[in-house]
UniProtKB/TrEMBL annotation:
The lineage of its organism: Eukaryota, Metazoa, Chordata, Craniata, Vertebrata. The keyword Cytoplasm applies. One of its GO terms (cellular component) is cytoplasm. This is ABHEA protein. It comes from the Eukaryota. It comes from Malurus elegans. Signal peptide: none annotated. Its main location: cytoplasm. SUPFAM superfamilies: alpha/beta-Hydrolases.
Length: 140
């Protein structure tokens, strides 16, 4: 994600700029109906894209993403993208907030990984992949 970790600073300071950046990435990679997996800070990119262009996605997998409180229940309710809300039960800060907001997505299901924290995919990789593969196998 631009601007996080060791990556160069982000030039995308608005939700529209971040949405457009992700759109360009998907276009440059010639991706048709991908499943977008969005852990933590990537929510700042994924959520604006989901809300504006969710019909371009085959599925969405938010993993305790940031930024969920920036949108209304009504905005989430308009999204028809199949969604797997995934988080670790030891993530007591961001995951509950994300779940509270993302549960307004009409096509969602939830998977909680016992014994996993915020980076549940690192804490419990086998459980994470099992949940992800189960969700992917159910997509049309």
């Amino acid at each position: 994600i631009p601007g996080y970790g060791d990556s160069p600073p982000a030039r995308m300071v608005t939700a529209e700029g971040r949405r457009n950046f992700l759109d360009r990435v998907l276009q440059d990679l010639s991706m048709q109906k991908p499943v977008l997996v969005s852990p933590s800070m990537s929510g700042r990119f994924a959520l604006p894209f989901l809300l504006a262009q969710g019909d371009r996605l085959a599925g969405f997998v938010p993993i305790a993403p940031v930024g969920t409180k920036d949108y209304t229940a009504e905005q989430y309710q308009r999204v028809q993208t199949p969604t797997l809300i995934l988080y670790g039960d030891r993530d007591k800060r961001l995951a509950p907030q994300a779940l509270q907001n993302l549960q307004h997505l009409p096509e969602h299901r939830v998977a909680v990984l016992p014994g996993a924290g915020h980076a549940c995919y690192l804490d419990k990789p086998e459980d994470f992949h099992r949940a992800l593969l189960r969700f992917l196998s159910q997509l049309k």
